[in-house]
Automatic annotation (TrEMBL):
<feature type="domain" description="USP">
    <location>
        <begin position="69"/>
        <end position="550"/>
    </location>
</feature>
<dbReference type="InterPro" id="IPR001607">
    <property type="entry name" value="Znf_UBP"/>
</dbReference>
<feature type="region of interest" description="Disordered">
    <location>
        <begin position="756"/>
        <end position="777"/>
    </location>
</feature>
<keyword id="KW-0206">Cytoskeleton</keyword>
<keyword id="KW-0677">Repeat</keyword>
<dbReference type="GO" id="GO:0016579">
    <property type="term" value="P:protein deubiquitination"/>
</dbReference>
<dbReference type="InterPro" id="IPR001394">
    <property type="entry name" value="Peptidase_C19_UCH"/>
</dbReference>
<keyword id="KW-0833">Ubl conjugation pathway</keyword>
<keyword id="KW-0862">Zinc</keyword>
<keyword id="KW-0479">Metal-binding</keyword>
<dbReference type="Pfam" id="PF00443">
    <property type="entry name" value="UCH"/>
</dbReference>
<dbReference type="GO" id="GO:0006508">
    <property type="term" value="P:proteolysis"/>
</dbReference>
<feature type="domain" description="UBP-type">
    <location>
        <begin position="7"/>
        <end position="123"/>
    </location>
</feature>
<comment type="similarity">
    <text>Belongs to the peptidase C19 family. USP20/USP33 subfamily.</text>
</comment>
<dbReference type="GO" id="GO:0004843">
    <property type="term" value="F:cysteine-type deubiquitinase activity"/>
</dbReference>
<feature type="compositionally biased region" description="Polar residues">
    <location>
        <begin position="200"/>
        <end position="210"/>
    </location>
</feature>
<dbReference type="GO" id="GO:0008270">
    <property type="term" value="F:zinc ion binding"/>
</dbReference>
Length: 777
């Protein structure tokens, strides 16, 4: 914006209907914001804008007509601003908050989804301000995680984890069973528990060969894969038939487990697992999914398996969730354990020069023997191949170039488990040498890649400043895809990059983002935003990268549907379709089958709790558009009429009546317990279970809790169950315990003041009283 003067400026002739003379006259006036007089005023040269201002930062007009908006730093928050700019330039997520506002509803504090929705609206709305102050969102993050309180510098990736996990928690919905499926569940479709809701952070896949292996937790829910070509490659030919028989037997066992329920197989128990931090296979063979909570007695039921098997989804899981298949083979008995785990970002190691040489060497060897057995992987090579490999290794040692493909190859490279890192084989019941490898089973719509630049030791931290070359377009993940994967689109284009400048102890975060409206790249540095070239982005020291699936067929399909809308053929029927799925169709490379479950109940009607805002959830389509989408993507069901489900209404009324009845009875019994001066017996109850029950009766949770589970607060001493010291437990009366146990069952029974102790105390007091009376006589 040049200062207005009487000089001949060619730009003043293109400001629309306002003439140059009128602008010169305005230059002697006042700033339209702060009323400061001239002569050092500035004129906006945007066509049709007659703004004249002083250019002060508090009244900055320079970005009003730009396609981008800045975030103000509110106290060492560059890590947050960079993460928010990178995330807001992911169209599938941003368009959801702009177009599907009816689904952004929550009763959970601090309602971070509402704050993020407001932020996205301020950043992308037509009448948006020139800058945004993300105060509400920052306050919500601090309320969730104390780590972000204060004004110290934090990690941008950790902020992303916290934000996205909380967004999932607030927006998650129970996944309804498909309309065209039977009640039987196969292993591949088996419902998995909501791992998001049981973790402080969403999962980050750690490197298989990194030095941070000790931090990885070997836990998580497993799902048996129908076939694993890597496992078959590692099994010697002479044992292949026997191994396949055992493999099939285990698969059948898992299938029977899911069809018949856990109770039918007492030797196999499902656990209340937490979301794993790395895709490390479970130790042991596959039927043992994971260890159950320790039981002090066998006469009481475990937690309700149906409750644990429920699956939840949200826009976060729709956009960022992928799955990785991890496999471990025992080199002694050839047993292969397989896990299938979700991830929302992948943490990649940055290989050094020697690691690069080993990586390329192992890649060459693997390519020679992929069709052979494990023993052939180390077969002698010819002298020509040996010389070429030696020259290649010398070149790599002299070169410092590291590419993103190298980091991916290091992550997915096979890792030998030996020495201090041997594999605990459950079949051998010993520590054995093993081989571990992983592949991608399904790719997310947006791939979040975290480069592990920070290495935290016991006494100090260091930063790896190696430049990693990454492509702006055409990142191909086909080499890392499992052979039985159904994913068709494997190419990704870059959306945004978060960069860190400085050391491990201090520094500054910025973001490079590609604007989806004009396909230009911008550098976001808190209040500063600058258009940059593609070469500038490629030279950046990347820390977190966001890639989006690229599919030209999806773009052509959207144009085809847009043309059908313009035809407007007369039709006798109008079809309702999910606004959320339509947003997927507009922004996803693979939107998947049509899903109207977000506005329909299991009976085909509108749930009563969504009836008041149903117009925000649906879009009406003409018949020709619906026919085309349905023939192309399938799914459904078709909806021509919206009505409130009467069956759901009756169920809701029954549920409310049950809640009120249980709550009133508990309050009455607990009041009597508080008034009792010397209770005969006090019962202990797990506060974890009690909080679930309290959330249910108060209407915060739609699902009732499972059976009472006191296993975590009980300890077995000399054959008797007693309360564990420091356990998270509460005290209730015998009547309250009997009331809750009659409804939910469970156990085990724990008391802190048994009847026998009370009787002995009374007997002792009587003897003392008699002795005192005798002495007085």
């Amino acid at each position: 914006m040049p200062p207005v003067s009487s000089c001949d400026c060619p730009h003043l002739d293109c400001v629309g209907e306002i003439t140059k003379e009128e602008l010169i006259q305005k230059s002697h006036g006042q700033c339209q914001d702060c009323k400061v007089g001239g002569p050092n005023l500035w004129a906006c040269l945007e066509n049709g804008c007659a703004y004249v201002g002083c250019g002060e930062s508090h009244a900055d007009h320079s970005t009003v007509h730009s396609q981008v908006r800045i975030l103000r730093n509110i106290g060492n928050t560059c890590y947050m601003n960079a993460a928010l700019q990178a995330l807001s330039n992911c169209p599938p997520l941003t368009q959801f908050f702009l177009e599907c506002g009816g689904l952004v509803r929550t009763d959970k504090k601090p309602a971070l989804c509402k704050s993020y929705q407001k932020l996205v609206s301020d950043l992308w709305h037509k009448n948006r301000p020139s800058y945004v102050v993300p105060t509400n969102l920052f306050q919500g993050i601090k309320a969730i995680n104390p780590m972000f309180r204060g004004y110290s510098q934090q990690d941008s990736q950790e902020f992303l984890r916290c934000l996205m996990d909380q967004l999932h928690e607030e927006l998650k919905e129970l996944v309804a069973e498909p309309y065209d499926q039977s009640n039987s569940i196969t292993v591949d479709d088996s419902p998995m528990e909501d791992n998001h809701s049981q973790s402080d952070d969403f999962q980050s896949c750690e490197s298989c060969g990194s030095s941070e292996r000790a931090d990885n937790e070997v836990q998580g829910g497993n799902v048996l894969m129908d076939n694993t070509n890597e496992a078959e490659m590692l099994i010697p030919e002479q044992d292949e038939i026997q191994a396949n028989r055992e493999w099939q037997k285990e698969k059948n066992m898992i299938n029977d487990l899911y069809r018949s329920g856990v109770d039918s197989f007492p030797g196999i128990q499902m656990s209340n697992t937490t979301r794993p931090q790395s895709p490390v296979p479970m130790e042991g063979h596959i039927p043992k999914m994971s260890s159950s909570p320790p039981k002090a007695a066998s006469g009481w039921p475990s937690l309700n398996p149906n409750k644990r098997q429920k699956k939840y989804r949200s826009v976060i899981s729709d956009v960022f969730d992928g799955t990785i298949v991890s496999s471990v083979q025992c080199l002694t008995c050839d047993r292969v354990s397989v896990t299938l785990e979700n991830f929302q970002d992948i943490s990649l190691p940055i290989p050094g020069k020697e690691d690069l040489a080993k990586l390329h060497s192992s890649t060459h060897q693997t390519s020679l023997v992929k069709a052979g057995s494990c023993g052939e992987a180390y077969a002698p090579q010819g002298w020509i191949a040996f010389v070429m490999e030696y020259i290649k290794r010398i070149y790599l040692l002299c070169s410092s170039l590291v590419t993103l493909q190298d980091c991916l190859a290091a992550f997915f490279a096979r890792d030998e488990l030996k020495g201090d890192n041997m594999y605990s084989c459950e079949k051998c019941k010993k520590l054995r040498n093993g081989v571990k490898f992983c592949k991608v089973q399904s790719l997310p719509e947006i791939l979040c890649i975290h480069l592990k630049r920070f290495r935290h030791e016991l006494m100090f931290s260091t930063k790896i400043s190696t430049h990693v070359s990454f492509p702006l377009e055409g990142l191909d993940l086909q080499p890392f895809l499992a052979k039985d994967s159904s994913t068709q689109t494997t190419n990704y284009d870059l959306l945004s990059v978060i960069c860190h400048h400085g050391t491990a102890s201090s520094g500054h975060y910025i973001a490079y983002c590609r604007n989806d409206l004009n396909n230009l790249w911008y550098e976001f540095d808190d209040q500063s935003v600058t258009e940059v070239s593609e070469s500038c982005v490629q030279n950046a020291e990347a820390y977190v990268l966001f890639y989006k699936k690229s599919n030209e067929d999806a773009v052509k399909e959207r144009r085809r549907v847009s043309g059908l809308f313009n035809i407007m053929e007369p039709s006798l029927l109008q079809f309702y379709i999910s606004r959320q799925w339509l947003n997927k169709f507009k922004t996803f490379a693979e939107p998947g089958p049509i899903s109207n479950d977000d506005f329909l109940c299991s009976h085909g009607g509108v749930p009563p709790n969504k009836a008041t805002f149903i117009d925000d959830l649906v879009v009406m389509l003409p018949q020709n558009v619906w026919d085309h989408l349905y023939s192309r993507y399938g799914g459904g069901p078709a909806v021509n009429h919206l009505y409130v489900c009467h069956t759901c209404q009756i169920e809701i009324e029954k549920l409310e009546k049950r809640r009120k009845s249980e709550l009133d009875m508990f309050v009455r019994l607990n009041k009597a317990f508080q008034e009792e001066e010397s209770p005969v017996v006090i019962y202990c109850i797990s506060m974890q279970w009690f909080r679930d029950w309290e959330g249910f009766v108060k209407g915060k949770d739609n699902d009732p809790p499972g059976p009472i589970d006191n296993s975590k607060i009980a300890v077995n001493k000399n054959g008797y169950l007693t309360l564990k010291q420091g356990a998270d437990s509460g005290q209730i009366s015998e009547e309250t315990w009997n009331f809750l146990h009659s409804i939910y069952g469970g156990g085990p029974l724990l008391t802190v003041r048994p009847n026998i102790s009370h009787q002995e105390s009374e007997s002792s007091q009587s003897e003392e009283k008699i002795e005192v009376e005798t002495r007085s006589v």
